[in-house]
TrEMBL record:
Any Pfam family hit: WD40
Source domain of life: Eukaryota
WD repeat start and end residues: 25-59, 75-117, 123-164
UniProt xrefs under InterPro entries: Coronin, WD40/YVTN_repeat-like_dom_sf, WD40_repeat_CS, WD40_repeat_dom_sf, WD40_rpt
Polar residues bias (residue ranges): 360-370
The keyword Repeat is assigned to this record: yes
The protein, known as: Coronin
UniProt-annotated stretches for the region Disordered: 346-370
Organism: Odocoileus virginianus (White-tailed deer)
Family in the record: Belongs to the WD repeat coronin family.
Classification via SUPFAM superfamilies: WD40 repeat-like (SSF50978)
Length: 472
């Protein structure tokens, strides 16, 4: 990667070779070694370089019209070139960097200074270059793979080593936390120089839980894990394929599924965040594949084949949103929180923690609401430790009667009451009755699905409220 970064439009229909005069991000005095988008700001990136600096860039929302040379912040602390940067997964404005000085530095970006000269924490436990960094789900643990052939699990705030792998049969180049499974996955080579994957227990790194040899190629393996679907994707530099695995908590843990083949080898690869996927086509993962021979970036979508065009709730569970659950100072003071979740259903918004409404507000509805939804909400609030969700009797009859009248109207299909009808006398009447019942069943199923989605959204809201207000 050279000293300039190119910001591309995420619009998939606009494909083709990029204009060589397209505006670029220019500012580093050496080659750029790593770039990471801020998970909580779609218009901010962090880049690190051989010039031993890290820079933060604000990308205009209308994208670039000319070369961007003015950085927002510069982080200066490493004595040698900086190879990796990583954003904290739950805390805002916390950035980690690792350099060829064998140090991992923790930066608090809340500072108003344009140039930050010293990190809030420096971790000095590595004896060689750090090759990979990965956080667990809530960011309380950091795993690193080092050129000294060791995998370490660190407390990122204290800088202490909690676990260390001294296993000589596996040389790791990449390491990855596997969601909430309390397991690590590393890719590297075996003692016979075969490309290999190893699965580790994060609380015991003495020996791997399992090892899988792939082939004798020399390209580095890059693992990508989707915790929502328990899918692992393994991409090799210089390869033409992508391997898929399913991760399970039970043996054999790594279950091979299939692989994607292409005619063009990839030199590098990136992924789209889950909230940027096309859920209408059942897309569950998307890669952006760098093909140097053709000077282009090719999108590769992983799609679950489904006949229905409606939203598929089972393949899109609630996922991490673009909202942090902690401030930088809260995390530095020792707090841990899980990510704020969101639904990928079109039109849904991130379920951000909000102040709890008063009981008076809860007890007086502002609009007629389905009794089924109210009952579901009442049960959820009762489980949360607060009083049951009840409706004053003097307010209930008016809108409840209207709702019963509305439900009575839905029983009519083409003016035909499906509950108070005489039995069919002819075959034609029987077929008409059957078709009407099928339509009604289909409509009721859609209604049940909508109610289930609303109930899940309420559960997520209550979960986020609990996380944001521990006293309640």
């Amino acid at each position: 990667m050279n000293q300039r970064l190119r910001c591309l439009s995420p619009s998939l229909p606009e494909t083709g070779k990029l204009d060589p005069h397209y505006p670029k991000v220019c500012g580093h005095r050496g080659n750029v070694l790593d770039v990471k988008w801020n998970p909580f700001n779609d218009f901010e990136i962090a880049s690190c370089s051989e010039d031993a600096t890290i820079k933060l860039w604000d990308i205009p929302k209308q994208l670039l019209t000319k070369n961007l040379t003015a950085f927002r912040k510069e982080l200066v602390g490493h004595a040698r070139k900086v190879g990796l940067v990583e954003w904290h997964p739950t805390a805002a404005n916390i950035l980690f960097s690792s350099g060829y000085d064998y140090k991992v530095m923790v930066w608090n970006l809340d500072s108003k200074e344009t140039v930050i000269m010293s990190p809030v924490k420096t971790i000095n436990c590595h004896q060689d270059v750090i090759l990979s960094m990965s956080f667990n789900t809530n960011g309380s643990l950091l795993a690193t793979a080092c050129k000294d052939r060791k995998i370490r699990v660190l407390d990122p705030r204290a800088g202490t080593v909690l676990q260390e792998a001294n296993y000589k049969g596996h040389r790791a180049s990449k390491v990855l936390f596997l969601g909430n499974l309390k397991k690590l996955l590393s890719t590297g080579t075996s003692r016979w120089n075969n490309r290999q994957m190893a699965l580790w227990d994060q609380d015991d790194l003495s020996v791997p839980v399992t090892e899988v040899d792939l082939d004798g190629s020399s390209g580095v393996l890059f693992p990508f894990y989707d915790a929502d679907t328990s899918m692992l994707y393994v991409v090799g530099k210089g390869d033409r394929n992508i391997h898929y695995y399913e991760i399970s908590a039970n043996k054999p843990h790594l279950n091979y599924l299939t692989e994607y083949h292409s005619y063009n080898p990839q030199k590098g690869i990136g992924v789209m965040p889950k909230r940027g996927l096309d859920v209408s086509s059942c897309e569950i993962f998307r890669f952006y594949k760098l093909i140097t021979t053709k000077s282009l970036i090719e999108p590769v979508s992983m799609i679950v084949p489904r006949r229905s065009e409606s939203y598929q709730e089972d393949i899109y569970p609630p996922t991490a949103s673009a909202q942090p659950s902690l401030t930088a100072q809260e995390w530095l003071s020792g707090m841990n929180k899980e990510p704020v979740l969101m639904s990928l259903r079109p039109g849904a918004e991130p379920l951000s923690p909000q102040p709890l409404p008063s009981e008076r507000t809860l007890s007086v509805p502002t609009a007629p609401t389905s009794p089924h939804l109210l009952n579901q909400t009442g049960r959820l609030l009762a489980e949360d430790g607060r009083g049951p969700f009840s409706l004053p009797e003097e307010k209930a009859p008016r809108w409840a009667a209207e709702h019963r009248l509305e439900e009575k109207k839905t029983w009519l299909t083409d003016g035909f009451d499906i509950f108070e009808c005489p039995p069919p006398k002819t075959e034609n009447e029987l077929l008409q009755m059957f078709y009407r019942q099928q339509d009604e069943i289909r409509r009721l199923r859609e209604l049940v699905t909508q109610r289930e989605v609303q109930a899940k959204q309420l559960e997520l809201e209550i979960r986020n409220l609990r996380m944001s207000s521990p006293r309640l």
